[in-house]
């Protein structure tokens, strides 16, 4: 019998690198004499006096921090150090601190140059006993690189890295399989057009056939599509885009830079999923509000149809379109259709409530996280419903899926992963003492990226056929602007015959809908507020009703992106997701989030000490001070007051430090610190203004949201 124990072996420090050492101790129980062993006696089947316990101890050495040169060198030695996942972690995250060219040059010129190695520069690589071993190690790394991250070599028009690699292979591994593979990859890239941002998204209006024009949805045409067909086609589009996502595009240090002018083409594969998510959200809103002549019951039927489609997405394990539909139904312009919602049947409202609860922000979106991991590798959806009728329908639809005999993959809502990676990037340092690259941070990031890659693999199980009729209809939809959707929403509500319900039943229905959105908090809809222009376009994310609801956490600083704030009871401004209001205007605004940093707490962690040798501690989080640090949200006053950035502060930070970091995050000149003042928003009519050299951590009010405004001094 074998029993394995692990023991912390401390740290090993070398020039330019720090390693974490773990001792792996394996106990082997064997028969004590040759006769017993020859007869086949196993240790656990023999009495103690006939056995002897032997121990095998091996050392696992994992690099914690190092120079780029040491990290690249470790690609060749990690296997010998029993750090078996190192190559995958490095390849998935190195773009945060190095370019493909820099890594390739180090790998081939410094470590792959056999003439140089003979002169003693490779003396520290004791495990490489010969040139053949060295060549095999480099080949192994290159093979893994091509397998896992071939997109790294897509560098049109000159493809310098691929040509350099090809030159190395011709000289060192002529006529090898890898040489022909690299040649084929080069031809493939050269034959393909450079893919633009919207080239990833099959739903772009630029894909319209000649003569086609954008149009507002025809209710009859939309109703002609069966619910499961719509869900399957949305899933087909989501799967195509999600499978193309390049994992390193999701890294917080990369995704958070997307707003800079020079980065407009950064992370195109992630932008494409954002565009598709918002296209679905806007399509839902347009189909409900786009036709003025609809009667209340007809509009209610369209809402019911979208709830059924969301349920079909749930059966297909498509959490992306599911969330897009729920977000649209919770947007200002749809949520405020109180009379229309009263005509939605009780069973369907309960179905909608159950689907909405999947994306509850309680405990860092624990419900959706657990469900996603539970279903990531399951063959079919695990459907539970507290409503008998809904449970019957769910099981019937699920059985039809099972009868087809085709497994389903899982399409996640990517915003959750983007949020986790943004939080990790904010909370953990890029460099540690001595200017070494903090590779522990990259290991933590890889835990999130590994989940994305697992789900991408699961998507290969889908077997969906495109329905051109629906796809063309979807592409033709003209999306309403924020102002249009709000105006149409007011018109639809004003035209509703409020006498169709008695005052008593009306009050009861308002209470039921309020409880549906707010949990146990009963909410009285506010008086209409005048429409306030928003700096961001889109059909949702309205900046009017204080009853705005949503759970969108994608990139919301771009004009095509949509996000509306989760609703909370107005009586409880401290509750998570509470409504943020403009000063003195009384109108709520959609939170435009920093790459999905809308989560109120960080990802669960194992060891978040960002410095070497630090004791394990919890990651800093938003809205809570712990162990001398926390995360605050800083928005710019004026034109960009709805865009916030997450910033890590410690108990050592003073106003100039925090102000400078906030300016950098908002892509403004960091030298202009003296021109700005930092204030904390206490309530709608109260602010906390900090003196010029105050300690932010100790000076802030920790009993309200950690929301700050950076305002130009008068």
Question: Care to describe what's here?
Answer:
With 714 residues, the chain is an alpha+beta fold. Among the domains are: 67-114 and 131-190, Son of sevenless (SoS) protein Chain: S domain 1 (Son of sevenless (SoS) protein, Chain S, domain 1, Up-down Bundle), CATH 1.20.870; 227-488, Ras guanine-nucleotide exchange factors catalytic domain (Son of Sevenless (SoS) protein, Chain S, domain 2); 624-712, Roll (Ubiquitin-like (UB roll)). The chain is built from 26 helices and 10 strands. The chain has a 5-stranded antiparallel beta sheet with strand order 1-2-3-5-4. Helix 10 runs antiparallel to helix 12 and helix 12 runs antiparallel to helix 13 (296-315). The radius of gyration is 29 Å and the shape is globular. It starts with a strand and ends with a strand. Mean pLDDT is 76; it is low at 115-121, 124-128, 195-206 and 501-616. Residues 226-495 form the Ras-GEF domain. It comes from Calcarius ornatus (Chestnut-collared longspur). Pfam families: RA, RasGEF, RasGEF_N. One of its GO terms (cellular component) is plasma membrane. Residues 59-190 form the N-terminal Ras-GEF domain.
Determine the N-to-C terminus distance.
76 Å
Q: Give unreliable regions as ranges.
A: 115-121, 124-128, 195-206, 501-616
- The chain-level mean pLDDT equals 76
Give the overall silhouette.
globular
Query: Which bin fits the share of residues in helices?
Result: 40-55%
Percentage beta strand: 5-15%
The helix count comes to: 26
CATH homologous superfamily grouping of the domain at 227-488: Ras guanine-nucleotide exchange factors catalytic domain
- How many individual β-strands? 10
CATH topology of the domain at 227-488: Son of Sevenless (SoS) protein, Chain S, domain 2
Strand adjacency order, main sheet: 1-2-3-5-4
CATH architecture of the domain at 227-488: Orthogonal Bundle
CATH class term of the domain at 227-488: Mainly Alpha
Spatial extent as radius of gyration: 29 Å
